[in-house]
Specification:
With 209 residues, the protein is of the alpha+beta class. It is built from eight helices and seven strands; from the N terminus they run H-E-E-H-H-H-E-E-E-H-E-E-H-H-H. It folds into two domains: 16-129, PAS domain (Beta-Lactamase), CATH 3.30.450.20; 156-201, no CATH class. A hairpin with a 5-residue loop joins strand 6 and strand 7.
Length: 209
């Protein structure tokens, strides 16, 4: 190998090294990353952002924030005001894929100045569709359980019961048949049969057979 001593390769500067590392991080992040302007323009989109949005980088840049974020989402105004006031924001938004379907994302955004002194924003986001589905299923199950518990009226405490006829005295002092009291205070009902002892006592002729 012949070296060109007259034009040796220039060593990488710290700035060059940082740019390479930034590019590697930007391209290989599992989260979507957008380099944007505060007004809503999008300057760069990484590979994950394209996969999540179902669009090419060129399409994302052309659409801008207005074409990607559901403008009817009330969180949009809240998060934009928060970022304008504090320089950063974190929350959930509804995004729009290329086919028009909406899906939820969790996002973080910060405002900064680039080397030229221009104000820029960075948005890091992820698709949380599965998490929202699990949360909705959990809420549905909790609601069903609460509804079921609300319908169950359980007996508790000491019940004054007659030692002879087995009637139960209610809170108003009236004596009720056991079946009547249980039906009134629970969701239980009765089906009737006869136990072996009563069978022998009441129908001995059938027991002998």
């Amino acid at each position: 190998m012949i070296r060109d001593n007259a034009n040796p390769p220039k060593p990488e500067t710290p700035a060059d090294d940082f740019a390479v590392r930034y590019r590697l991080l930007f391209e290989n992040s599992m989260d979507g990353i957008l380099l944007t302007s505060p007004g809503g323009g999008i300057l760069h989109a990484n590979r994950s952002a394209c996969e999540i949005m179902g669009r090419t980088e060129e399409e994302i840049l052309r659409e801008g924030r207005q074409g990607l974020i559901d403008s009817d989402d009330p969180n949009l105004r809240v998060l934009l005001e928060q970022r304008a006031r504090t320089g950063k924001a974190h929350g959930e938004l509804r995004c729009r894929r290329k086919d028009g379907t909406l899906f939820p994302i969790e996002m973080s955004s910060v405002v900064f100045l680039d080397p030229a002194g221009e104000e820029r924003t960075c948005i890091i986001f992820r698709d949380i569709t599965q998490r929202k589905q699990l949360e909705a299923e959990r809420e549905r199950l909790i609601a069903e359980l609460q509804e079921a518990l609300g319908k169950v009226r359980m007996l508790s405490g000491l019940l004054p019961i007659c030692a002879s006829c087995k009637k139960i005295r209610d809170e108003k002092g009236a004596w009720n048949e056991l079946e009547t009291y249980v039906r009134k205070h629970t969701q239980a009902n009765f089906s009737h049969g006869i136990c072996p002892d009563c069978m022998h006592r009441l129908y001995p002729e059938y027991c002998k057979k």
